[in-house]
Amino acid sequence: MKEENFNEKENCSSAFKYCDGVFLNSMWKQRKDRKSRQQRNQAAVEDMSFDEMVDAAKGTTVTFYGWGGDDSLNDWLDNYYAPRLKEKYDITLERVPMDIDAILSQLSGEISTDKKDGDIDMIWINGENFKTCKENNMLYGPFAEELPNFQSYIDTDDEETNADFCFPIEGYEAPYGKAQLVMVADTAVTPDLPTNTDEFMEFCKANKGKVTYPALPDFTGSAFVRNVIYDICGYEQFMDMEADKETVKAAIEPALEYLRELNPYLWNEGKTFPKDSTALTNMYSDGEVVMDISYSAYSTATNIENGTYTETSQSFQFDKGTIGNTNYIAIAANSGNVAGAQVAINEMMDPEVQADRFTEIRTIPVVDYNKLNDTQKEAFDKVEIGKGVISQDELLSKRLPEMPSALVPIIEEIWAEEVVGK
Fold first, then answer.
1. Element housing 387 (H / E)
2. Quick one: DSSP state of residue 215?
3. Which of 33, 260, 284, 388 is spaced 20 to 30 Å from 296 by Cα?
């Protein structure tokens, strides 16, 4: 029976009659939990030691809002990370799968109505979304530097620790995982893999109608277009470029011309593009296209293992490199459980947790290998990455920086105007 069929004042007896008391008991428990969450949030969490946060977090629920399209990650969160938090800290993790636009809309709505005990605690975030949230006071912080595992295991001098898409982090988010763009093709079908944009053009001509990329602003599609821009125009000029549309358009015009020239050889002649990276992966798996694109550098191995990819699929990248970035976890400004969120985020940076995630879903770890002891290093060293991947040394040696976050939506807007269907 649906919850909305009950009115608290008018239907108490009905609730007990039909639900045997379960609904109202649950409702009262949720109300009590919300009240206690608000009380904890109103306490001076910033004055707590980490041990005091651990005590305050016991018996609480922490919500984790983020994109839910990665089944492997979802499984790992539900079956490893959540049980670990429960066993170690008596924290219940409630994962809420939601696209980032919807998350930010909900968060903005809660803050604009001055909702003190917000439903959102932790947020999987990065790039322009982080910039928007931080600039509009939608995030709690700074907090990251106060977490023990951040200080013990994260490279605090790393550029990606301190800046997200060139925007200062200043302790308002903590690293969650590292990503790097790779392209994937079946070497049994297309043995010659392109190493630059010139060769990529020939690759598309040779496989006319069988190559495409996700429509912007899909995260992976947007990164692919920025990578094309880097390969043709270089990346250095964008690091401090003014976020002005005409300035950006002039700088990327050679890449825009390339993308327009590419269109006739793409799937559906570049008139339309797959809606997102998941759609592209399905097209590749079904043989509709001969190339996939992923921001998860080692996903080729897991996709071979689970049968999504053929055994002869292989990751590749351009000789000049591919864009990489770190994604992060932030805390909502009106979180009802700031203490619990910080404890949970600290645990995500535990080397044992990062090693298990590396083992199970092949996410590039955020911990600094040089800060690990021998036992911790061994946990990473023994991981078998699997088939079809680029070695981590080669991958990271060709890791290109992200653009400033303010440029990304401008490029996406220009792409929609100047490339699609041209």
1. none
2. P
3. 260
Length of the chain: 422
CB–CB of 100/125 below 8 Å? Answer: yes
Q: Helix, strand or coil for residue 324?
A: strand
H/E stretch holding 125: strand 122-125
Alpha carbon distance, N-terminus to C-terminus of the chain: 52
Confidence of residue 393 (pLDDT cuts 50, 70, 90): confident
CB 420 within 8 A of CB 214: no
Report the run of H or E that residue 160 belongs to, with start and end. helix 159-162
Query: Which residue has 């009240």 as its token pair?
Result: 35
Residue 234 identity (one-letter amino acid): G
8 A C-beta contact, residue 90 and residue 58: yes
| Tokens describing residue 345 | 């985020």
Q: Is residue 259 within 8 Å of 212, Cβ to Cβ? A: no
206-218 residue pLDDT tens: 999 999 999 999 9
At residue 101, the 3 state secondary structure works out as helix
Look at the block and give the residue holding tokens 């949030």. 41
> What is the residue whose two structure tokens read 């015009």?
253
Gyration radius (Cα) of the chain, Å: 23
Integer Cα distance of 324 and 168 in angstroms = 17
Mean pLDDT of the chain: 90
> How far does CA 56 lie from the centroid of its chain?
28
Q: What is the distance between the alpha carbons of residues 133 and 331, in angstroms, rounded to a whole number?
A: 10
Q: State the pLDDT at residue 78.
A: 98
Contact 284, 292 (CB under 8 A): yes
Residue type, 279: A
The set of long-range contacts for 391-397, using a CB threshold of 8 Å and a minimum separation of 24, is 392/364, 395/180, 395/182, 395/297, 395/317, 395/324, 395/364, 396/180, 396/324
CB burial readout 229-251, b (16+ within 10 A) else e: bbbbbebeebeebeeeeeebbeb
Backbone torsions φ then ψ of 291, nearest 5 degrees = -145, 140
Q: What is the pTM of this model?
A: 0.83
What is the number of other CB atoms lying within 10 angstroms of the CB of residue 166?
18
Q: Does the N-terminal peptide bond of residue 404 adopt cis geometry, omega within 30 degrees of 0?
A: no
DSSP state of 365: P
